[in-house]
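Much of our argument rests on the idea that a fold can be written as discrete symbols. The amino acid sequence and the backbone structure tokens for this protein are reproduced below:

___
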Amino acid sequence: MLDQIKQQAAQAMKELLEMADPKQGEIVVVGCSSSEVGGKKIGTHSSMELAEAIYQGIAPALQEKGLFLAAQCCEHLNRCIVIEEEAAEKLGLEPVNVVPQMKAGGSFATTAYAHFAHPVVVEEVRAVCGIDIGGTLIGMHLKRVAVPVRLSVRNIGEAPIICARTRPKFVGGERAHYNQELL
């Protein structure tokens, strides 16, 4: 089961990155309910093993493209974000003082914190794309105009996934012309 979850996570991230086409150094947000992945109600059956399988599935694709993972914490930490210190400094984000735990932050955020070279927690980011695994509500951490992305992977484990990319806002009116590459 863990290998299948790792493969589903890897495939989902690969497809999302192909569709969103983020630039090196940009942020990708992932919210994950390991409870939902295991077929239980969000927040009721956290699993470090499931979180680890998902992390191992998505991390290589992000590292290969030079992207930063933003791991969303659960509601008990107000959906704060675990991110590499380098990314926080680059973006001028102020760290807060908290270390995620399985029941206060969530298994996935705890796993990311353990794997990152220099983890910090920040209150928010503006990611260019992301994966919501199990209804964790990542929208608050995406840039302003989010566009749904449909993948061949619909679930990771038992958890439904919803993916999004972002695009710049359209400004102007009927006379405006838009850069088709930014749509």
Summary: The chain has a mean pLDDT of 96. The first strand starts at residue 27 and ends at 32. The helical segments are 2-20, 34-37, 48-64, 85-91, 107-115. Residues 117 and 181 are 34 Å apart (CA to CA).
